[in-house]
Amino acid sequence: MSCNHCCEKCASRLYAHEVPIFESLSEEELERVINIRKHMSFKKGESLFLEGDKVSKLFIINEGMVKITKSTTNGKEQIINILTVGDFLGESNILGDTLESNVSAIAVKNTSVCTISREDFNELLFKNPTISLKLLSELNKRLIEVENLTSNLSNNNPEARICCMLLEFADRYGKEQVNGKVEIKLPLNREEMANYCGIARETLSRKLSLLESEGIIEAVGTKKIIINNLNSLEDYII
User: Fold this and answer.
1) Which residue in 11, 91, 115, 179 has a CA-CA distance of 20 to 30 Å to 104?
2) What is the pLDDT, as a whole number, of residue 3?
3) Does this UniProt record's set of keywords contain Plastid (predicted)?
4) Average pLDDT in the 23-36 region?
């Protein structure tokens, strides 16, 4: 991808208010954001930053997808969030003291991001307090998502964990069909989905097959899942 193309797409998304934290800005204020941002590209599997790194910039996803992970006590990867176009990351050290990151950010697919330095972003916040409010709103939303994930992982029922994940994916990535079914373009592969649920990959495959045999879902290859009945998924969680 050329830098010019990346710049054009980023500017277009900002002007279209597709980056939530900047949606309250005027065109003149957006110009300021566009003028101070820089660009970085990452191939699938590359890290934006790792646990222990000191992050001194805000990342805004322009294209692609990023998973936020944390190492468990036994050295395994636990996926705690999935971010896509318009989402931001690296905000912890931007807003507070520069500390070592307690999470890693890995590109799930080829990804381009816009970055804003700590100094430029703090100046932007000072001049535009509405960004602070939007930022807090987005961070609160993520906190709720992490709390939901923690609650899900504390449930020893693997079916409930998987159903929670599928319902979350349906909400964030699902496309409702005419017949009321929901088609999900999966953001993660099977191994990553198992990590997200905190279960073995074999368990995930077995439970997905069970849900499919009951007619609740339909797997379309490894990239898509169609949910035939959202209510039945919710019943597994109750």
Assistant:
1) 11
2) 47
3) no
4) 80
pLDDT tens per residue, range 126-158: 887 877 787 777 777 777 777 776 766 666 688
Location of structure tokens 């964030």:
172
Which residue intervals of 73-199 are DSSP H helices? 91-95, 118-127, 129-153, 158-173, 190-197
Of 101, 25, 1, nearest to 59 by C-alpha is 101
CB atoms within 10 A of CB 88: 21
User: Which residue intervals of the chain bear CATH 2.60.120.10?
Assistant: 3-153
d(CA 113, CA 38): 8
Please tell me the distance from the alpha carbon of residue 187 to that of residue 190, in angstroms, as a whole number. Answer: 10
109 closest CA partner among 36, 1, 22, 200: 1
Q: Which helix (H) or strand (E) holds 107?
A: strand 104-107
Tell the CATH topology of 158-237.
Arc Repressor Mutant, subunit A (1.10.10)
Of the candidates 122, 123, 172, 132, the residue with the CA atom closest to the CA atom of residue 22 = 132
Fold designation for 3-153: Jelly Rolls (2.60.120)
- CA–chain centroid gap for 188, Å, is 11
Sheet with 38-42, side-by-side order of all strands = 38-42, 111-117, 57-63, 88-89
Statement: residue 167 has pLDDT above 70: yes
